Amino acid sequence: MSNPENFIDEVTEEVRRDKLFALMRKYGWIAVTLVVLLVGGAAYNEWSKAQAQAKAEALGDAILATEELEDAAARKAALAELSISGDARAVVTLLQADEDGKVAAEQLAEMSDDANLPKMYRDLAALKLVMQADGGLSAEDATARLAPLLQAGAPFRVLAEEQMALVELTNGDKAAAISRLQALLLDEEASRALRQRASQLIVALGGALAAS
Predict the structure, then answer these.
(1) Hey, how many other C-beta atoms are within 10 angstroms of the C-beta on 195?
(2) Alpha carbon separation from 114 to 42, 142, 148, 151 (Å, rounded)
(3) What is the pLDDT of residues 114-144, one digit of tens each?
(4) If both were cysteines, with which of 99, 121, 124, 192 could 90 make a disulfide (CB 3.0 to 4.6 Å apart)?
(5) Among residues 199, 115, 131, 135, which one has the least CA distance to residue 166?
(6) Quick check: 121 and 87 in contact, CB under 8 A?
């Protein structure tokens, strides 16, 4: 009985092989195509990353080169000539704010209101806009720009607190400004330089320094 059984098993195995080979001949090109696509896609992805990194590095070098220029007009012109977009445009706009006045203020206002930009850039633009002496903001506008920056955990909160104190002074509310500045002296997130500025302003306003 064993021989017939072995024979049947061998025939069955041969049939399976024939079917497998037939399937490979019929559909094998699909597998080969998938492999080529996967390998080609991975290679293209790596090439794209390398290109993007090289472009970012070149742009970074160009921005640093403009910042090394000693003449303010030359820096302004060099920044304006940069061909950039996306987040890089936000960075250059922030740099231009240090070189220009009213024009930069308009750009900062647009940037602060641009919902397509990451929140960090929008917040920084709002902060720099309020800090500009010639930004043209009223006390009410400045307060509205600073309000979101004062939330707990906001990256520029302590700097916004300092600016809010100045806005309160502009509104004639010296007591509120002093209280805010005193709180900054005890704020662990406040830098040493910020605390020093707050201390100097408190003294100038006739307030008492909080115990640190």
Answers:
(1) 17
(2) 34, 17, 15, 20
(3) 888 888 888 988 888 888 866 678 889 999 9
(4) 121
(5) 131
(6) yes
